[in-house]
Amino acid sequence: MEPLPVPCPAHLIPVASGTGAFHKAYRQAMAHSAVFIAIESEGPRWTVKADTLTAGSGHAVDDTVNDAIRAAIVRLVHNHEAGTDAYTGPIYFLMHDVPSEERARELAAALHAALYGDLEPLNRAVPPTS
Q1: Could you tell me if 111 and 122 are in contact, meaning their C-beta atoms sit under 8 angstroms apart?
Q2: Torsion of the alpha carbons at 31, 108, 5 and 116, rounded to the nearest 10
Q3: CA distances for 110 relative to 38, 57, 126, angstroms
Q4: Residue 65 near residue 122 (C-beta atoms within 8 A)
Q5: What's the pLDDT score for residue 130?
Q6: How far apart are CA 27 and CA 25, in angstroms?
Q7: Main-chain dihedrals φ then ψ at residue 79, nearest 5 degrees
Q8: Residue-level pLDDT at 85
Q9: I want to staple 70 with a disulfide (CB 3.0 to 4.6 A). Which of 63, 82, 88, 98 is the partner?
Q10: 64-70 — which CB contacts under 8 Å span 24+ positions?
Q11: What pTM value is reported for the model?
Q12: So what's the pLDDT on residue 18?
């Protein structure tokens, strides 16, 4: 299986639900020294997961990007688009209770781009408050 492109279109975000799917996607990210990103079904709600450890020690996310991601996740929690148990990094990111697969894919693709330094998709998906 090929590594995910950067930025990764939403439709290519892997679904890591089911027996072994999470571990397979995680191992693949590690094998390609890439940021792990996936979504999982939780009944009618979805989870977005990301982990930068799989990208190796050479992959760094600067503080400005981490701050922007953290602020976006806080806005999602405030707007009830993610659960209050969200994890905001700086290495591992988790958002439970996303309302639909489409929104989970959009958020995962935006988070993936941000973890590679491109904040534009995140700003479109979760506009900053003024």
Answers
A1: yes
A2: -80
A3: 12, 22, 9
A4: no
A5: 66
A6: 6
A7: -90, 10
A8: 96
A9: 88
A10: 65/114, 65/115, 65/117, 65/119, 66/90, 68/114, 68/119, 68/122, 68/123, 69/93, 69/111, 69/114, 69/115, 69/122
A11: 0.95
A12: 82
| Residues of the chain falling short of pLDDT 50 | none
Closest among 129, 101, 104, 124 to 114, alpha carbons compared: 124
Q: Quote the pLDDT of residue 7.
A: 86
Cα–Cα–Cα angle for 28, 26, 35, rounded to 5 degrees: 85
Torsion, Cα 13 79 100 88, to 10 degrees, reads 30
Exposed, middle or buried: residue 36 (CB in 10 Å: 0-12, 13-18, 19+)?
buried
The one-letter amino acid code at 23 reads: H
Per-residue confidence (pLDDT) for residue 1, from 0 to 100: 66
